[in-house]
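Running log. JK asked me to keep both predictions on one page so they can be read side by side. First protein, sequence followed by its C-alpha cells:
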Amino acid sequence: MAQLWGGRFTKETDKLVYNFNASISFDQKFYEQDIRGSKAHVAMLARQGILTAEEKDQIEAGLDGILADVRSGKLEITSEYEDIHSFVEANLIDRIGDAGKKLHTGRSRNDQVALDMKLYVRDEIDETDELVKKLLEVLQKIMEENVHTYMPGFTHLQKAQPVTLAHHVGAYFEMFVRDRSRLADIRKRMNTCPLGAGALAGTTYPLDREYTAQLLGFDGPTRNSMDSVSDRDYVIELLSAFSTIMSRFCEEIIMWNSNEYRFVEIDDAYSTGSSIMPQKKNPDIAELVRGKTGRVYGALTSILTTMKGIPLAYNKDMQEDKELTFDAIDTVKGCLALFTGMISTMQFNKQNMEASAKNGFTNATDAADYLVNHGVPFRDAHGIVGRLVLTCIDKGISLDELPLEEYKAISPVFENDIYEAISMKTCVEKRMTIGAPGPDVMEKVIAENKKYLEEN
C-alpha cells in the first residue's frame, strides 16, 4: 500500500528495506494508546475551530469502531501497514472518507509515537506497581507470622548473628518499597504531553496543547518541541528500575531450598523434577526468574547504547526503544506474578533455621558481650570467645551445648547464666533499636508497613 509519506518519492521502497523500516510487528501494541491520543487530538482541533463539530463526531465514531473491532478480533492488524499510525489512519479513511484525512492535521508521527510510548509506559508502570504491591502484601504476611522465627543472618555468605525470618524478609520489604517509589518518581517525571510538538519544531496551527494534555491525564505539555520527540529518558529510567526489581531475592530462595540449607519447601506447583533422578525437586521458577534478569539488564544496556550517540531531534534509531522495552515489561510483570505466587505458597522449615543459627556460632558476639558486661575488655573478650568457638568446632558442638566447666577453663568469669545470655531468644530480643530484629521494634515496623500498604 502507499505510505503516508509517499508524495516525495517516485518509486516504491524496496521490499526488504520496507520490512526493515516497518514497526507494525511490534508497535501494534500501541493501538489503544494511539486511538486514545487521536481522539484527544481531534477534540482539541474541533475546540480550536480547526475541525468542525461534524468532522470531530465522524472521526471519533470511526476511531471507536476501529478500537471495538480490533478488541473483538473482527479487524486484524497486519503487516500491510508500516506502523500502527498508518493502520489507524488508513482504516479510518476507508470507513468515513475524506473527514478521516483530517485526523493528522497539526501532528507528526514523531510527536504521535512519542505520545503513544508515554501513554503505554505510564499504563504499564501502574500495572507493575500493583504487582509489586501484591508482593509486598505477601511479604508483610510472612513478617507478621515470623517475628519469633529464629534464623542465621549472614555476611560474606558466612553465618554472622541471629535474626528472625520477619527481620530478613523485612529487608526485602524495604527494597520493594523503594522500587515502588522509583516507579512513582518516573511516572511523575515523565507525565508531560509531547503531542503538538510536530516533527521537531511545533506547528503553525493554533493548537491548545494544555487542553490536549488535560484530556490525556498529563500534568501539562512538554516545554521544548525538540526534546519532546527525542526524549526517551523515561524508558532508560524504567529499565533501570526494572533491573533493580529483578535482582537478589531469587538467589536466596534457591540457596534456602538446597539440601545444605533446607530452610524452605517450595510448593509442587512451582517446582519440577528430574527426568533421571527421582529424588530431585528443583526450584525452576526461582532459577528462571534469576535467569530472566539478564534479559532486563540487556534491554537497559541496549537503550543506553542506542540513545548515547544520536543528535537532536528524532532519528530512526529510536524505533529500537520499543521491542526491548515491551519484552522487559512483559518479563518483569510475569516474574513478579510468578514469584509472588511461589513465596505465598512456600513453607518455612523453622526448626532447621534455628538449628542453623545455633550451629553457626551466630551467638558468639553475644558471648563476648556477656564478658564485657562482667568487666572484661572487649578485645580480650573477643579472643576468649574465639578460643571457645575453636573448642566447639573440635568437639562438633554449639556454644549452647558446651559444658560450663569448659567455659570456665578458658575464662573463670563465665557462670551458668551464660546459657540464657546466648540463647537465640535473648540474642534477638536484646536488639531493640529501630531497624533491629527485636520483637517489639519489629512489631512497630510491621504496623508501619500495614499503614503504608493501606495508604499507598
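And the second, directly underneath as requested:
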Amino acid sequence: SGPFTQAPLGYAFNALEPHIDATTMEIHFGRHHAAYVTNMNNFAKEYSQLGGAPVHEILAKLGDVPDTIRTGVRNNLGGHANHAMFWQIMAPGGAKAPEGDLKAAIERDLGGFEKLQIEFNAAGGRVFGSGWVFVTVTAEGKLALTARPNQDTPLMEGQRVLFGNDVWEHAYYLKHQNRRADYLKGWWNVANWSVIAERYAAAKAGTLTI
C-alpha cells in the first residue's frame, strides 16, 4: 500500500494473442510492473514528498530527489510511468491505423504511417540491451521518434509520450526468444489507435501526463 498504484489492465491476459502471449502478459503486468509500484511505495515511506507530487513532475525533477534513492526512483518510477502508458495504448480492439488529426501529424512529422513503422522498428532494434522506443508529442502536436535505455522516459526531460513500445526481453522473450524484430513487427497489430488519438488530443489540450 502507498501513494503509487497500478491501474487494472483493462483486458484479459490472453487478449493480445497471438502477438503477445498470455503468460508474458501475466508476468509482465503482475510481476515486473507490480514490482516497480511496490518499490516506489517503499521509497515513499523513506521520502514522503514522493507521494505528494504527480508522477510526471517527479520524473522531470529527479535532481530534487535525495541522492540515496535517486537511481532507484529513476528506474522504478520510470518503469511505472512507461508501463502505465504501455498497457493503455494496446488493446484487442480499437482503430487499427491512425486517422484524422493524428494521421495528418504522422504524415507531416514522421513521413507517413508506413515510414513510421519502419523507423520505429529500426530504432527499437538498435536499443542495446534493455529499453524503450517512443513517439513524443508537444503541446503544439508535433511528433518525434526517440529511444531510451532501461526504464528512462522522455518525461525526464519534461516531454510527453504519445506512445511507446517496451523492448526489454521480458516483453517478448517467451514467445520470440532473441527475435526482437519479429516482436516489433507484430506489435503493431495490438496498438490501439483510438486510445493513441485520445492521447494526442490530450497533449494538445495540455492534459496529457504519463
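Observation for JK regarding the second prediction: The first strand starts at residue 131 and ends at 137.
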